[in-house]
Structures are given as C-alpha cells and as structure tokens.
Amino acid sequence: MREFFEKLGKIDRRIIYLIVAIGVITPILFKARLPIKPLPEVRQAFDYIESLPESSAVLISIDYDASSMPELQPMLYALLRHVFRKNLRVIMLGHWPLGVPLGQIALEDVAKEMGKKYGVDYCFLGYRPGIAAVMLNLGKEIRSVFASDYKYTPLDSLPMMRNIHNYNDIALLIGLEAGSVGDFWVQFAQARFNQKIILGSTAVITPDIYPYLQAGQIVGLIGGLRGAADYETLVNTPGPASIGMYSQTVVHILVVALIILGNVGYFVLRRRK
Amino acid sequence: MKREIPLAITFISGFLLIVALFIPHKPFGTLQETFNDWYIIVSGFTMILGIDSLLLHNWNKVKRRKSDWPYALALIMSFFLTFLWGLYSIVYEPTHNPFAPTASFLKYFYKSIFVPLQATMFALLAFFIASAAYRAFRAREINSTLLLFSAALVMLGRVPEGEQAAPYVFGIISLLFAVYFFIEASLLTAGFLKYLYIALGVLLLAAIYPVGKLLLAYLPKIADWIMNIPQLAAKRGILIGVALGGIAMSLRIIVGIERTYLK
Questions:
Q1: Rounded distance between C-alpha atoms, residue A93 and residue B194, angstroms
Q2: Nearest CA of chain A to the CA of B64: how many Å?
Q3: Do the Cβ atoms of A211 and B232 come within 8 Å?
Q4: How many Cβ contacts (< 8 angstroms) between chains A and B?
Q5: What mean pLDDT comes out for the span B229-253?
Q6: Residue B177 is nearest to which of A127, A133, A264, comparing CB atoms?
Q7: Residue B1 or B66, more confident
Q8: What is the distance between the alpha carbons of residues A236 and A81, in angstroms, rounded to a whole number?
Q9: Taking CA atoms, what residue in A is nearest to B153?
Q10: How far does A85 lie from chain B, in Å, by closest CA?
C-alpha cells in the first residue's frame, strides 16, 4: 500500500498529457456547456455598453495575436455583437501587427451577420508602430496617426469618421490585451484624456488589471476564457468560449487533483526518508 | 564626442519632454506632438533593423551548417515568399495593400498556416503546465503551502460549477491521506506517533462533510476574496515599485548617470 502512495508522486508525464488531452477534447467534441453566472466585473462592462447612447463611437484595440486567440477572439465576437446590436459605431485598430488581421476578420464577420455597412457603421484603421506615441496622438487628432483607413481611404471620406477627431468623440475604448498594452491605454488614454476604458484580457494578465478596476480607472474587466463565456452569456449568444469553459473547468480540476496527488506522493516519500 | 553627443541628445530630449508636460503653451505644447511623430517614424525603421538582424542571424546558421539549420532555411524562405507575394499584392490586389488580410494569398497564408502554427505552439503550454505543476508544486514550507492552497481555491472557485467539484476533490484527497495515516499507524508500536496518526486520519475523515459543505457554499466568494484583497494588495505594491523604479531609471538616463544604453 505504501508503494501505491509513493507511485502517486511519480506518475509518468505521458499519462498526464493523455489525461489532459482527454479532458480538453471530450467536452469540445460533445459541445458540452455548463451553466455560467457572469462575474460582477464582466456585468459592469456589459452594463456600461448598454448605457451608451445610440451611434456613440467605440474604439476597439486588438492587442493580441493567434497565441491568445482561444480566449480573446470569442470575447471580441461577443463584444462586437453587443456593440452592433446597440447600433454603436466601431473604429478598430491594433498594436500587435501579427494579430491585427484577427480583429479585421472578426469585424467583417460580425458586420456581415448584423447587416452593418463599412464606413457608416464601422471602419478599420490597421496598425501603426510606436504604442505610446500613437495613443497620445489619438488624443489630439486621429488623422495625425491614421490619415486613412487600411484601404488608403482618407478618414474624412468615411461618413462615420467626419465628426470623430480624438478621444473626446469616442464614448468608449475597448482594449483586448495579451500583454502590457492595456497598461499604456490606462496611463495615456485614461489618465491624460479621461477616456472611459473596458479591458478584456487573457487569464494570465487579468490579475495585473484588477488594480485599475478597483481604482475606477477602467469601467469593466473581461478576464480570460471565463470572462468571454460570461459575456457570451450576457449577450445571449453562446459560442466557443462557453464550450471551451467546460474543458477549462475539467482541466482546472485535473490540475488541482494532480498537484495534490503529487504532494501526497512527496509527503509519503519525505516521511520514509 | 562619440559619447558626449548621444548624452546631450538624451538630456535635451528628456528635459524638453518633461517641460512640455507642464507647459502646454507654444513652443513646448507642440513639442510633444512633434517628438511623437518622430518616435513613430523611428519605430517603423526599427522593424527594418529587426528584419536585417533576423535574416543575417539565420543566414549565418545556414551558411555554417549549424545545428537545426533547416529551420533557419525554412524561416528565410517563408520570409521571402511572404514578402514577394506582398509586393505582388501591391500591384494586383484591388486594395493595393499587401498587408490587408483580404489580399487572397496573404489571407490564406495567415489563416491557414500562421494562425494554426502560433496557436498550436501556445496550446502545448496546457500540457506542460499540468505536468510541471504536478512535478514542481510541492508544499515544502509554509509559503509554498499557502500558495498551493490559494492556487487550488482560485482555480476551482473561478470556473463555473467549480464549487460543485471542490467537495469531491477535497473528499478524495482527505480519504487518501486518512488511509495513509491509518497504514502508518498500523505499522507502528503503541506510542505517541501511532495515536497522532490515528487522530489525524479520524480528523480528516470527520472534516470531509463540513469542509465540503463550506466549499459548496462559499468557494466562489473565497476565490473572489483572494483575487480582490491579498492578490490586489501585492499587485498594487509591485505596480507602485515598478513605477518608482521607472521614474528613477528615467532620471538616471536623462542626467547621464545610467549609460549602459550607449554600449
């Protein structure tokens, strides 16, 4: 029996990989879903968007790439559905050049689904280098950084952009973050221009963003796959995040169980020595 | 002069930018905007430097047949394939924009090759983290034990229905430990240690029900409390420290005490 306890601390890593793979794949294959009760900070973000008057401008910043796609792409789809359903106007840009096309793909998908028109209901600005400098210049005049959209159409030729010049004309900024760009948004757009901000982030960096939420520097926080699933629930369009949440729950339980089993083995071995 | 001129440029630029923040009138008010424009242009050129360094590094690997040189060759070939197709797109794509994801080949390249590759690389982390957590996350001392417990509580408390699973996880683990304590006790002759093991085993078995009920009722709240109070306090301390460190380092660079950037 003692040997059994000792073996608990020496499970082969291939067995762990197999268990994790089964735990991740099975719920996705069966499209299983768990009942989701949105977190307060996600509801806060949802309520803020709900409170915006029709045709307000919303700036969405794509600050992630494919490595964070499973968490942030469903979040973007849910946010876009909500924003378009509210008849808000969307301006999209990005600070991660390799991820910017992900934003555009989502924007075009949802715009098509909701019957929105380019240049009237939404536009895509693309990428410019120099994160802090871009953010500061956006506070003065958007055209000083983006004279045209990604198709080289001058901004003044887009009907929705004619009266949008800087943060004063933007009701809300939504940053989807996989790194530290969210900190820059808070430091430059919020602290200097008092821009209202909602941050959506990967689970890894969500704890870094909590201080901004508690200090009132951001008006909502959508953290990780859980946040994305919460938002999908709030906009009543369950999607990949809601399905992925089952896998994440299973894997969390597995990891906790494995950690504790590893410690049982460690404890038994240490007692023997 | 090789050192003095860059030091003078750094001092003047840094000083002017600080002044511009406090005096929003001409000529200082527009200075920051001008500097920002320059910064954006310089940032663009740093990409060219990056590409140059990347290609040279990998080309040297291929030339000297260093280990894993075929990967370096694959990188160079992929770079030029994408670059040349980008040039082609400038001429033939309707948007004349090689970086538009609507440019057919680049869109295909991006969606079908780049995105799955990058996502796969990151997805592997789930397996490594599970294995590493199992191997390395040990309750060796009081600090690591506290970390372990709070991590377990947050991991279970922040997922939907985590509170439903937590009592079972706790129950099975308690049962395992209790069985272990009883086995150890049975192997010992009568004495303090034997009774201690029996007491610990009984205590664990008795704790299963009340602790399970407690987890069921309060786990999400406990997880939220950990995230909002101790986690936030530590994070805020780190943030303030980082900000003060950043200010100190910036001042050292502006006044020329810190010169490592010149090397």
A1: 68
A2: 31
A3: yes
A4: 180
A5: 92
A6: A264
A7: B66
A8: 10
A9: A256
A10: 25
Which residue in B has a C-alpha nearest to residue A131's C-alpha? B40
Contacting residues for A75 by C-beta, under 8 A, at least 6 apart:
A176, A200, A222, A227, A228, A231, A241
Which DSSP state fits A143?
G
- Tokens 């900000």 identify what position? B243
Give me the amino acid identity at A265: G
Name which residue leads in pLDDT, B41 or A59: A59
Main-chain phi, psi angles of A222, to 5 degrees: -115, 105
Domain ranges of chain B: 1-64, 67-136
Q: Where are the domains of chain A?
A: 2-31+249-272, 40-237
Which residues of chain B does A69 touch, with a Cβ-Cβ cutoff of 8 Å? 115, 119
Integer Cα distance of A214 and A227 in angstroms: 17
Of A2, A227, A239, whose CA–CA distance to B158 is shortest? Answer: A227
Distance between CA atoms of A155 and A162, rounded to whole angstroms?
Answer: 7
Whole-complex ipTM: 0.79
Residue A160 Cα distances to A154, A155, A267, B133, B174, angstroms: 12, 9, 65, 50, 62
Q: What is the mean pLDDT of residues B241-248?
A: 94
Q: What is the DSSP letter of B83?
A: H
Q: Please tell me which of the candidates A127, A150, A262 has its beta carbon nearest to residue B137.
A: A262
With a CB cutoff of 8 Å and minimum separation 6, the contacts of B119 are: A66, A67, A69, A70
CATH of domain A40-237: 3.40.50.10160
Phi, psi of B193, deg, nearest 5: -60, -40
Q: How far is CA B83 from the centre of its chain?
A: 30
Torsion angle defined by CA atoms of residues A188, A192, A194 and A198, in that order, rounded to the nearest 10 degrees: 10
Q: Residue A272: which pLDDT band, with cuts at 50, 70 and 90?
A: low
Is there a contact between A262 and B158 if contact means CB atoms under 8 Å apart?
Answer: no
Q: Which among A135, A160, A140 has a CA at the least distance from the CA of A149? A: A160
**Per-residue pLDDT tens for A62-91?**
999 999 998 999 999 999 999 999 999 999
Amino acid at A207: P
Mutate to test the interface with B, among A92, A127, A213, A249 (most CBs of B within 10 A): A249
Which DSSP string do the residues of A54-66 spell out, in sequence order? TT-EEEEEEE--G
Rounded CA separation B222/A107 (Å): 38
Q: What pLDDT does A79 receive?
A: 97
Hey, are the CB atoms on A257 and B156 less than 8 Å from each other? no
Residue with tokens 């279970």: B156
